[in-house]
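Hey, can you fold this one?
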Amino acid sequence: MSNSSLVDYTDITSHKTSPRMDKIRKITIHHMAGNLSVEECGEVFHNRDASTNYGIGNDGRIGLYVDECDRAWATTDPDNDHQAINIELANDEIGGNWHVSDKVINRCIDLCVDICKRNGIEKLNFTGDESGNLTMHCYFMATACPGSYLKTKFKYIADKVNERLGSTPIPKPNGDMWAGAYPSLPERGYYLTGDGYNTYVGYQNDIKLIQQYLNWAIDAKLEVDGYYGNATTNAVESFQRKVGLTADGSYGKDTLSAAKKYKKNSASKKYSGALPTKDLVPGSVGLQVKDLQNFLNWYGNYGLEIDGSYGKLTTSAVKNFQTSEKILVDGMFGIQSRTTAKKYT
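Sure. Predicted structure:
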């Protein structure tokens, strides 16, 4: 998990829900309704049943009050707050239109850019209602927050953030090898079951690289959202079966190493070697088994020894081939498997 490196002051409140129950997709900006420092803002959230993730004081310093991995009690709408990083901005005018200084707004833009980059938010979309991912407190309850002046600045903030975010293009294929970058790994790799999404705060862009890679390698058709959920776990399992790894759905060092070695057999590429012409089963030996092993290494980079012996590793590779091709998975290279293999010649 990670928080912004831009923070100048930390005062964590107990008024929060830990952990947040959804991925970070949004930013909600509020005003403090006061000309407060980050210290004064922190004191407020020790004394009220409310909180925010960050606050920007009247001098432009940034305070942290609720870690990003936790939900702040900010908008009274749990669905928004579980998805949003909430930011309070100090006013330099009390009452009236509740003016906010350019210094504070510019620091807010800096913070929003940082939040977006670390959490895989490619663009802030200000729609003027709660459907966008840049939201106001007043969308969720009857309140004047964020004040009439700050309301006029939301589109400006979104535009400035998006200018600095730019976009990350999806790599173009480079023959049979992946042309894009590979992810950095947390110490334990990426898991779904029992680990909790918050483990990966700060790794969303790396998870996007995994998703882009899987879409290229096995046509996984994943949404590239930086969320290591069920769909991504299932795609990782499919890739692991294809390359002869234990299909546990976790993306660790072994899966990363296999990804770097993997050569994709595009639809236009044909297998030029010989294929078995008879049914083969575990225990079979001979030249036809060697033909099978050569084909399987071409198909899935399984690294089989070409020894002509249909043992456990060859059986496992056949099962992976059958799973990938969505045919009967029995570990025997019979007529259905031979017919399926022929389409690659």
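Residues 193-199 have pLDDT under 50 and may be disordered. Let me know if you want another pass with a different chain boundary.
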